[in-house]
Amino acid sequence: MGTRLYRVEDKYRGTAQEFYRLQRRLDTVLRADLNENDRDGYSVASLYFDDLRDSCLAETAEGCNDRRKYRIRIYNDSQDVIKLEVKENRNNRIFKKARRITAEDLRRLADGQCIEASCSAEDPAFLFNTAIRTRGLRPKVIVAYERKAYTYAPGNVRITFDRNVRASRRTEEFGRQGISYDFLDGGDSVLEIKYDEFLPGFILQLMETGNLRQTAYSKYRLCRERYEASAFGN
Fold first, then answer.
1. What's the CA gap between 199 and 201, in Å, rounded?
2. Spatial CB neighbours of 229, under 8 Å, sequence gap ≥ 6
């Protein structure tokens, strides 16, 4: 087995005008993500899970260097592709384990039941099953947003603009259309840049505005705290 490659993930805040200008620059030189369904990008909805102690939320709030997030993700309000993901964060680098699951798998996991999995810790279903059995892993919140994404093969670069981040506590409705969401206050857009070992210099030049602010932005944390304003001292 090869060495696991953890990717760099840098996040930035900026104004809508700054992000618009950056997107226009990237449109001319980078390839758009294959998930796009129109020029504005595509929609993402994720069902996030946490344990009985809300360990994922606490570790994110505390900035722990070694933590995991558990989620199920769909695109464009469709269950044609359902992804089960465990995202590991270690020393500000990320590694994502993902696989496709069925609608029945989604229903079972959302009900706190295990699904068929291998015996490998590289299988996100195995990690979900373990956390369900030992820590009471359950759905906590739906996080949704619109995404415009760009890719560049050298360095495995992926640049995403996420906007209109919103939340719903009605986790039982995940995967349905017409869910009622609550929008965040002043924290509804973020730019993320992910890459392996290097970021090409010309992309650095394209992204330069002088005003972008690096941030530890977490959609999951913000959406949970949308309903739990007193959590962890906020």
1. 6
2. none
